[in-house]
Amino acid sequence: MQTANETILSVDLKKLEYNFNYLKSKISPSTKIIAVVKAFAYGHGDIAISKKLEKLGIYALWVTDFEEGVLLRKSGVKSKIIVANPGIKSYNKIIKHNLDVVIYNNRLLDLYCSKKNMINVHIKFNTGMNRYGFEKKELDNIIDKLKTATHLNVLSICSHLASADKVEKKEFTEKQLFKFQKIASKFELQLEKSILKHILNSHGVINFHKYQFNLVRLGIGLYGSAKDKNLKPISSLKSVITQNRSIKAGQPIGYGRSFIAKKNMTISMVPVGYADGLNRKLSNGVGQVIINGKICSIVGKISMGNFTVDTTHIISNEGDVVEIFGENLSVSSIAKSINTIPYEIYSILNRRIKRVYSE
């Protein structure tokens, strides 16, 4: 595909398919899959990603708020869409666009019980994450309300693991899993109906797949940055050198004069900055890029719309490609260098960056 854009996030949908099938191979053929496409599909573009996952046969798509769900519906996505945080004011939009909702407290439950429209709901319990979710002691009250609200079609019960990616914290994860198992069994017994149950995320599937129940939620694993060497990162971010400059020893680079050249240098400008989602913590030698197969360090402070690299040691020309992350420089390694996680690196990529998809 030809594009006029110089900064491009290339997304390989074949690798997305590979990751989906790899994670699917770890669970039973009868276990259903929810694909997490919140936050613009972790920065990759929710419409294209969702349509690909729809073709792969996911059970549902998981978004954060109703606006994400509405956008997918308007783009032609037909699959079930589950809104994790529906809020109080969005009821009419949710009904209009046929969205499912996660109910995690009595305020939401009472609101949806008070209405009359048929809607699919998913009940969330807290098992140790201590974020959203009902407590186990509330179960009897929840069941009483659900039994009188026949317009609420309870499709699943769910919870969320706090540290499934950390094998050294296996004991805590297993406590969460056992607690969820007990809650789910009692919930089904009292509701007098068999429902779907899900608590495993990507790392849950990788490390605790025997607790898969009959539904799992896949997020970061689909995008290739979970802790499993078999997964393939599905994207690369590349730009170009827009200007080369020679500077002398003692000259500063960038805002605040935070970098002073110790020798004569060649430096190159790249038109990507913190407004595009490039973390400023990668400034002054922390971050690196690949140019013509060589590692080049970021020097000076990353600006709003550009950064500077040291290209003294290579032959470079204006227009040469700059790999910010991709085959030679992983998002996981970048995240580790600034003590964060791949989720953040992906999700803060500005939507003005051109996304190009390939099969």
Q: What do these coordinates show?
A:
This protein has a 9-stranded mixed beta sheet. It contains 11 helices and 19 strands. The mean pLDDT is 97. A hairpin with a 7-residue loop joins strand 16 and strand 17 (307-310). The chain has 359 residues and is an alpha/beta fold. 29% of the residues lie in helices and 24% in strands. The chain has helices spanning 13-24, 38-42, 46-56, 66-74, 91-96, 106-114, 139-148, 170-191, 202-208, 331-337, 342-347, and strands at 8-12, 32-36, 60-63, 80-83, 100-103, 119-124, 152-158, 196-198, 215-218, 235-240, 243-247, 252-253, 259-260, 265-270, 288-291, 294-299, 307-310, 321-325, 354-358.
List keywords for this structure.
single chain; 359 residues; alpha/beta; 9-stranded mixed β-sheet; 8-stranded parallel β-sheet; 11 helices; elongated
Topology:
Elements: E1 8-12, H1 13-24, E2 32-36, H2 38-42, H3 46-56, E3 60-63, H4 66-74, E4 80-83, H5 91-96, E5 100-103, H6 106-114, E6 119-124, H7 139-148, E7 152-158, H8 170-191, E8 196-198, H9 202-208, E9 215-218, E10 235-240, E11 243-247, E12 252-253, E13 259-260, E14 265-270, E15 288-291, E16 294-299, E17 307-310, E18 321-325, H10 331-337, H11 342-347, E19 354-358
Parallel strand pairs: 1-19, 2-3, 2-9, 3-4, 4-5, 5-6, 6-7, 7-8
Antiparallel strand pairs: 1-10, 10-18, 11-14, 12-13, 14-17, 15-16, 15-18, 16-17
Helix pairs in contact: 1-3, 6-7, 7-8
